[in-house]
Write a structure and sequence with these properties.
Length: 322
């Protein structure tokens, strides 16, 4: 019996830091230690399927025709599984996966509880009996993900940090417009469109990085010293890695429930409610240090106990038919 596993990235790169590459690496290594496994890029369109009747297919679907899942799901095998991030507020993003979900025996969805709890109200409701939910993960044991923020800035002098990319599901446009309404330090990192960057190009006390590595200790120290909160305006985001990385490092997230999570240690934003969001930012600026430390401690515990690679991978392993 062999597992044919398809995802994105180099499965042998044990130094990978961010998803989706980390998912490919951690899941592959976990399976490799327990079973015969063959890895494929999920966009593979050339490898001729060699699947035995007792083999298992586990992979990330893709909307383009002729790629791995479409071809390998046609083969006679023991079981077919999908593994991918599912979110539904912008349904056209995941609508392509419906035909593959109908063929699959189980669906490993990398999704916060919010998306599964509301799935019955969507066109994806038929998936519910097949779903096994997974939480995205961060390796809290790695030195790079130790909690390095040990002190918060004084009230009304606290900085904001955001990291990501421009996309309708990410809510970057809405977030940057909100940032123009508040006076405080802001550090932005990621791959953003010119249109989004133009929104904040004249904003005072703003630093923009095209891309950063948390291995760059100088950049990391600057962000941790100047910033206290990770701000995020997810519109339809399954289980954002940047959220958990920020929690691991000690920043307090301010985010929408559409990031998939509603932990009581996350401060709230609401979509299309600027007044609420400005009040939330103001309240964050005025919280006592002891309150922030408590939230920080709760978030770190979540990273160490819930958002772990062992929990992620073992959940998949325990739910496949080997």
């Amino acid at each position: 019996m062999r597992i044919h596993f398809a995802y994105f990235g180099d499965p042998n790169n044990d130094g990978s830091l961010h998803t989706p590459e980390t998912i490919a690496n951690r899941m592959y290594r976990y399976l490799q230690a327990r079973v015969d496994v063959q890895y494929y890029n999920f966009m593979d369109f050339t490898t001729a399927p060699k699947v035995a009747p007792d083999d298992i297919i586990l992979g990330h679907p893709h909307p383009w025709p002729g790629l791995f899942i479409e071809r390998y799901f046609k083969e006679k095998c023991k079981a077919r599984y999908l593994i991918w991030p599912l979110h539904t507020r912008i349904p056209e993003i995941n609508r392509f996966a419906i035909k593959y979900a109908k063929q699959a025996d189980k669906l490993f969805t990398i999704s916060g509880p919010y998306w599964i709890d509301t799935l019955d109200k969507t066109e994806f409701a038929f998936m519910l009996p097949k779903i096994v939910r997974l939480d995205n993960a961060v390796d809290s044991k790695q030195s790079i993900w130790q909690m390095v923020k040990t002190k918060f800035n004084p009230k009304k002098q606290r900085g904001l940090f955001t990291m990501g990319r421009s996309a309708p599901e990410k809510g970057t446009t809405e977030l940057f417009r909100l940032m123009n309404k508040v006076k405080c330090p802001l550090i932005v990192a990621g791959e953003f469109s010119r249109e989004d960057l133009d929104i904040i190009k004249n904003r005072p006390d703003t630093t923009i990085h095209k891309k950063i590595s948390w291995r760059d200790m100088q950049v990391k120290a600057d962000i941790m010293n100047r910033c206290d909160f990770f701000v995020n305006m997810s519109v339809s985001d399954a289980s954002p890695t940047t959220l958990f990385e920020s929690m691991a490092l000690g920043l307090i997230p301010i985010t929408t429930k559409e990031c998939g999570y509603q932990y009581d240690s996350l401060l709230p934003f609401k979509l299309s409610d600027e007044t609420f969001n400005l009040n939330s930012l103001s309240n964050a600026q005025n919280m006592d240090e002891s309150e922030l430390k408590l939230l920080q401690s709760k978030n770190r515990k979540l990273i160490e106990e819930v958002h772990t690679w062992d929990r992620f991978c073992s959940t998949v392993w325990e739910n496949i038919q080997c």
